[in-house]
Design a protein that fits this description.
The protein is an alpha+beta fold and 476 residues long. Helix content is 43%, strand content 16%. The chain is built from 18 helices and ten strands. The strands form two sheets. Strands 3-4-7-6-5-10-8-9 form an eight-stranded mixed sheet, sandwiched between helices. A two-stranded antiparallel sheet has the order 1-2. Helix 6 runs antiparallel to helix 7. The longest helix is centred in the N-terminal third of the chain and has 26 residues.
Length: 476
C-alpha cells in the first residue's frame, strides 16, 4: 500500500521547498494571520517584514562553507551523523586519509564498536587495525622508523595507564624475563656499528655496565665472534622493512676491507715465499630461513699444497630465496668490494704485512695476480647472470641450443658466453630485435655482477650428480 502511494505521489511532480523556503513561508503566513487579526484594532505598532529564522547550530558560512551549504539545504536532523557514516562507508577503511590545508597528509581513525573486550583484542591484532594505522601515520609524519613511532605511542599511553601496561607485561611473561634478557649478536653489532665503537672500547663499556647493573646485558664476545665468522673484523648491521611491515635484519663485511684487515691472521710472512697466484671465490645459498654468502681465499704455490681460509661475509634473515631482497640488502655492498679486488687484479703484501690490490710504493713480500670465481647452485648462477626466471633448457656457459649438445668439449670457444655478449643481447632484446625464446637464448636482464665472466662460475658438481641420479631413478 505504501509503495503504491509513493508511486502515485511521485507522478504529481510536486516541488518540495527547502528548509529556508519553508521557514520563510511559515513566517509570512504567520505574519499575514497576525495582520488580519489586528486589522480592526487600535494598535498602531508597525509590523516589520519577517526574515528567515537563523538556526543557532547552523555552521558559519565563512569558516565552514561546505557544511553551511549542506545544512542549509537539507533536513538537519542527525545530518552530521549521516554524513560521517557515508564518509566511512565510502572509504571502507579504518584510516581515513586526507590532505590538510598545508598539503600534508592527515589521518582520521575509525574506532569500531564492539560489545566485548575480546572482540577488540582480536581486532587490534589485525594488520589493518587502527593501532598499526596510527603507528604508520606517526612514522610517516615524524620521518622515523615504525619501532620508534610505536615506542612514542606506548610512552604516551604509559603516562596515563602505566598500571595497565605493567599488568599486560606480567600476563605476557615479559616482566618476569626482562631481568634475564640480553641483547643478541646482531643487536649488539648494530649498536656498536652505528655508534662507531670498536670492540676494544666496547669491552670497556660493557665492563662498566656490568659493574653497575650487577650482570651482563649483552651476549658474550665469544658468541658474537662465532656468529660473525670468528674474526676481529666487525660487520656492518642494518635492517630493511618490506611493504607488509616485515623487518629483515642483515649484516655484511666488504670482502676487500675484510682481507686487508685480516691479512696478518690469514697468512704468515714466511708462507708467502713461492706464492704463484691467489684465487678468491665467493658464493651464496639459502637455507634455514636465511641467506648466507661465503668468501674463500686460496693461496696457490708452485711446490706445496694450497693454503685456504674461509669467511662468512653476509647474512640475511629472511624465509624466502628472493633476489629482490638480496639486491635491497647485501648484494651490491659485497659486489662493490669484489669489484675493488678485480679492478686492481693484484695481491700485493709489503714488508709491513699490509695488503694492496693495485700497487704499492714499498718493498713487497709478494706481488701475484688474483682471479675471482663464483660458486653456488644453478639458481644462484641464474640470479647473478641476469637469467632469473629463464627456461631451464638453456645453458649458463654456452649459447648452443639443447638439441645441439654433443658433449662437454664439443662447444666452440666463440659460442661460450661472455659478459659483453650478454650485454649486447639485452640491448637487442630491449630494442625489439630479438623476440623469440630461441633468439634470446635464456637471457632475461643485465648481469648483477658484470665483472666476473661466466667461465669463472664453478660448475656445481654435487647438484649435477644429485639431479642426474634423480632423473635416472624417475625413469626406472
Amino acid at each position: 500500500m505504501s509503495t503504491k502511494l509513493a508511486v502515485e505521489v511521485g507522478k504529481l511532480d510536486l516541488i518540495y521547498p527547502t528548509i529556508n523556503d519553508s521557514i520563510k513561508s511559515t513566517s509570512d503566513l504567520s505574519s499575514k494571520s497576525d495582520s488580519e487579526e489586528h486589522s480592526d484594532s487600535d494598535c498602531e505598532e508597525e509590523i516589520d517584514d519577517v526574515s528567515p529564522v537563523s538556526s543557532p547550530d547552523l555552521p558559519d558560512a565563512s569558516e565552514y562553507p561546505l557544511l553551511h551549504f549542506l545544512f542549509s539545504t537539507q533536513v538537519r536532523e542527525n545530518l552530521f551523523d549521516k554524513l560521517l557514516n557515508e564518509v566511512v562507508r565510502y572509504h571502507n577503511s579504518a584510516a581515513l586519509k586526507f590532505k590538510r590545508g598545508n598539503n600534508t597528509e592527515g589521518t582520521l581513525l575509525y574506532v569500531p564498536s564492539f560489545r566485548t573486550l575480546s572482540r577488540y583484542e582480536k581486532e587490534f591484532k589485525k594488520r589493518s587495525s587502527i593501532l598499526l594505522e596510527a603507528v604508520e601515520a606517526i612514522s610517516k609524519n615524524a620521518k622515523c622508523p615504525p619501532n620508534d613511532a610505536c615506542e612514542s605511542l606506548i610512552m604516551g599511553l604509559c603516562h596515563y595507564y602505566d598500571d595497565a601496561l605493567l599488568s599486560v607485561a606480567v600476563k605476557r611473561g615479559m616482566a618476569d624475563g626482562a631481568l634475564d634478557r640480553k641483547m643478541d649478536e646482531v643487536s649488539v653489532e648494530a649498536m656498536l656499528s652505528k655508534a662507531g665503537v670498536n670492540w676494544k672500547n666496547a669491552r670497556i663499556l660493557f665492563r662498566h655496565i656490568k659493574q653497575f647493573f650487577g650482570r651482563s646485558l649483552f651476549v658474550s664476545e665469544k658468541k658474537r665472534r662465532a656468529y660473525f665468522g670468528n674474526n676481529d673484523f666487525p660487520p656492518e648491521v642494518d635492517s630493511e622493512m618490506l611493504p607488509d611491515k616485515t623487518i629483515i635484519r642483515y649484516w655484511w663485511k666488504k670482502p676487500d676491507l675484510l682481507l686487508q684487515h685480516q691479512i696478518k691472521q690469514i697468512i704468515n710472512p714466511g708462507d708467502l715465499h713461492g706464492l704463484q697466484r691467489v684465487d678468491i671465490c665467493t658464493g651464496g645459498d639459502h637455507g634455514g630461513g636465511r641467506f648466507r654468502m661465503l668468501l674463500k681465499i686460496l693461496f696457490r704455490f708452485v711446490d706445496k699444497p694450497a693454503i685456504t681460509r674461509l669467511f662468512e661475509i653476509a647474512n640475511v634473515l629472511h624465509s624466502q630465496d628472493d633476489i629482490g631482497i638480496l639486491n635491497k640488502t647485501v648484494l651490491h655492498k659485497i659486489a662493490d668490494g669484489l669489484r675493488n679486488i678485480k679492478r686492481g687484479g693484484r695481491f700485493i703484501v709489503d714488508n709491513n704485512m699490509q695488503l694492496f690490490f693495485d700497487q704499492s710504493n714499498t718493498e713487497n713480500l709478494c706481488d701475484v695476480p688474483t682471479s675471482l670465481y663464483i660458486n653456488g647452485d644453478l639458481k644462484y648462477f641464474a640470479q647473478m647472470l641476469g637469467r632469473d626466471g629463464m627456461s631451464t633448457s638453456w645453458c649458463m656457459w654456452c649459447q648452443a641450443h639443447p638439441n645441439e649438445w654433443r658433449g662437454l668439449f664439443s662447444v666452440p670457444l666463440q659460442q661460450l658466453w661472455s659478459i659483453s655478449q650478454q650485454l649486447e643481447y639485452v640491448q637487442r632484446i630491449e630494442a625489439g630485435v630479438l623476440k623469440e625464446p630461441r633468439e634470446k637464448k635464456g637471457i632475461v636482464s643485465l648481469p648483477l655482477i658484470d665483472f666476473i665472466e661466466p667461465r669463472h662460475y664453478i660448475f656445481p658438481q654435487l647438484h649435477f650428480e644429485i639431479g642426474a641420479a634423480n632423473n635416472v631413478l624417475d625413469y626406472l
